[in-house]
Amino acid sequence: MHELPVMNRILAVAEKHARMNRIQRILKIDLEVGRLSDLEEKWMRRYFDQISKGSIAEGAFLSVEWKPVVLACSACGTTFEPELSADSPSACPECLNTGGTLVSGRGYVIKSMEGI
Amino acid sequence: MTEVRLIEVKENILDDNDKVAADLRARLTASKTFLLNLMAGPGAGKTSTVIATATRLKDRIRIGVLEADIDSTVDAEKVLEAGIPAIQMKTGGFCHLDATMVEDGLRTLGGNYDLVILENVGNLVCPAEFDTGAHLNMMVISVPEGDDKPLKYPLMFSVCDIILVNKTDMQALTDFSLERFTSSVRRVNAKAAIFPVSCRTGEGLDVWAEALAEKVLEFQQKKS
Predict the structure, then answer these.
(1) Which of A27, A74, B5, B205 is most buried, with most CB under 10 Å away?
(2) Residue B204, CA distances (Å) to A57, B54, B198, B218 in order
(3) Chain B residues touching A71 at Cβ < 8 A
(4) Which of B2, B12, B188 sits opposite A100 (nearest CB)?
(5) Looking at chain B, which residue has its C-alpha nearest residue A27?
């Protein structure tokens, strides 16, 4: 839904690191995106291609790695990956309790990039 | 031939906003102003909740309101009519507020307040991703929206400390089950407090307003 502001930030961060490393042209950006994000990969690419026109990242390939949602069990603290869309809540594999607190699964990290 | 270089970046793009938000929260804590971020989908009753809450507390607590909308001023006008200081922030097409926009809004609102309620843009997706600098995140969900919303918008439900279930007076017209709703919330959020209310009949609002007043008081008595 907010692909545009997110892609703008990704481009800005990539350009900053390119300057710091004296990169003239960005060829590839490796992203890690949390599964809780509602962003669509297709639209991320379209927006990125649009906003990067004329920049040093024009034509760069976006590689998106989706990171799983991880919960910490509210009873015993064990971390596990819940099935969010299932009919019944996923239970903790250790104690079978069904509630938890989010540990990871949100955010957008630029892991690395390739350039010349 | 130029060699392709691999550069380690490891930067979360939400970090900048998270930093502005943390600074803002620290400054508000020092000046003993409690910032409450209120989120909901369109039509759940955000503005009604703001008015119902503020009118119950305004004689004891100095309350200011920041209304955020993509492009209108109707919400701030309603709050002002109820005798509560408010300003309208237009996000100009943005689907959410970030900490910098909230900082600007607080500057425009001015004055000294014990509690500032921030009515975020009506949307269950984007506002959940951006820390506004608030001390407490809450959302309003209404009975007609259905009890399956935590399954559809898990991020929103995972970031909230308080959830108001509004329009309980419409319960008989829907299949909404508070029990089913609560168990869906607990999948992603073990601790959020859930308050059933009706802004139309007033049901549950005194209990909610008291709970908020206690939180504000507790916050102000904490040594910073």
Answers:
(1) B205
(2) 54, 15, 7, 21
(3) 188
(4) B188
(5) B4
Distance (Å, rounded) from C-alpha B70 to C-alpha B73?
9
Give residues with Cβ within 8 angstroms of A6, minimum separation 6.
Answer: A39, A44, A108, B13
Q: Is B120 on the interface with A (CB under 8 A)?
A: no
CB atoms closer than 10 angstroms to residue B196 = 18
**Chain B residues touching A1 at Cβ < 8 A:** 95, 123, 125-126
| ipTM (interface predicted TM) | 0.81
Find, among B122, B11, B98, the residue nearest to A17 by Cα.
Answer: B11
Full-prediction pTM beyond 0.90? no
**Over its length of 224 residues, how does chain B's per-residue pLDDT go in tens digits?**
578 999 999 998 888 889 999 999 999 999 999 999 999 999 999 999 999 999 999 999 999 999 988 777 788 889 999 999 999 988 777 778 889 999 999 999 999 999 999 999 988 888 888 899 999 999 999 999 999 999 888 889 989 999 999 999 999 999 999 999 999 998 888 889 999 999 999 999 999 999 999 999 999 998 75
